[in-house]
Amino acid sequence: MFILIVGGKGARAVEFEQALADFGLDWDVQWQPDPEAVMALPDDRPPDAVVAERDLQGVSGPDVLARVRSRYPEAVRILLLDEGDGSGVEQVLESAHRLLRKPLDAGELIEAVESVIELRELLDNESLKEAIGKVGALPPPPRLYIEMTQLLGDPDTTTADVAEVLSQDPAIAAKVLRLCNSAYFSAGRVITDMRTAVTRLGLQTIQRLVLAAEAYSGAGGVNGIDRDAMQERALRTSRLAARLLGGPSAELAATAGLLAEVGMLLPDVRIPGRVAEEAAAGDGQGPHYAEAGAYLLGLWGLPMPIVEAVASHHQPGRMRMSGFWVAGAVHVASALAGGTEVDETYLRSVGMLDKLPRWRAMAEEQLAEAA
Length: 371
Description:
Blueprint: E1 2-6, H1 12-23, E2 28-32, E3 49-53, E4 55-56, E5 59-60, H2 61-71, E6 76-81, H3 89-92, E7 98-101, H4 106-122, H5 126-133, H6 143-152, H7 159-167, H8 170-180, H9 194-201, H10 203-215, H11 227-245, H12 250-259, H13 274-278, H14 289-300, H15 304-312, H16 326-338, H17 344-349, H18 356-370
Parallel strand pairs: 1-2, 1-3, 3-6, 6-7
Antiparallel strand pairs: 4-5
Helix pairs in contact: 6-7, 6-10, 7-9, 8-10, 9-10, 10-12, 11-12, 11-16, 12-15, 12-16, 14-15, 15-16, 16-18
C-alpha cells in the first residue's frame, strides 16, 4: 500500500509511522512537500491513496487532488482541513473522496484507508473503480448526516442540540419537515418546527430522514429517474428492512435500505429490469447501479455492513456472510417495496422462506397505511 501525503511533514509524522508499526501495517508512506512532484511519480508505481492539505505552496489541495483524479483515477483522494474550516466544502468535495481534520490523526487515516481496502476486496472490479474514479461530480458526502452521527455519539446530546444543528441548513430542515409530515411518518398532527420533529420521531429516525434529504437532493434526475418517487420507495424499503431484521441490527438495515438505490443517481450506470423500463439507462456496458452505489458509500465512509448490503441487495446469495442479515433484509424489503421478484432460492438456503408470506403481508400493510 503506497500512501502519498502532500504537505508539511509536521510533528504528527513520527506518531503516524509509529502507529503503522503498532498495527503491523507494511505500508509505504511518503511525505511530499512539493505538490508538483505528485505528477512526476513513475508510471509503474501509482499511489493507492493521496492525502493533501487544503492550502499548499502555490496551489490548492483540491486542485492537486483533481489532477490526481485525472492521472490516477483509482487512487483514494483525502483532503485535510483545519479545525473549523468548513467554508466552501461543497466545492472541494468534487475532488476529494474523504475529508479529515488537521492535525493528521494516525488512527483516522488508517481507518479511512483500510475501509477502502475492505471495499475493494468486496467490489474488486477494475472497470467499476475506474468508472467511479472518473466521475467528476459525485454526490457529496452527506454533511449533516455525518455531523449528526458524531453528535449522537455524545451521551450528553439533547433533542435541542440536534434541532439546532439541523436548523443551520434551512433547505435540509425544510425537506426533513416535509418528510416528517409525509404519510409514512405523520401521526395526524402537522409538525412545523424541528424540535417537535426530533422529539416525536426520535433521534435515529430523524438521522435517517436527514440522510434521505441529503442523498436524494438536487433538481432533476440522472438517467431519467424521478427522485421524489425514488425517495418514497427508499423510505418504504428502509422502514420495512428494519422490521424484517429487528434487534440490534435493525438500524443498519434501515440505513442500508434507504440507500439501496442511490447508485442510480450516478451517470453511466446499468439499471436492469424494472427501472430500465422507466429510464434510459445507457448501453448496458457501465457498472451495475448497486455496485456503483456501494462503492460511493464506501468512499463516504459508511459502515461496511451497509456498503455490503447495498452492493448485494439485488443478488443476496453472493455476499460473503452466510445467513440472513442486513443484505438479506434489504433485498426482501427492496423487492417488496419496489414490486420486483424476491429471491426465494436464497431465502430457502438461509432457512427463511417460510417467513415470506408474513413479510408480504407486512409490506402490504405498510403500503395501506401510507395510502
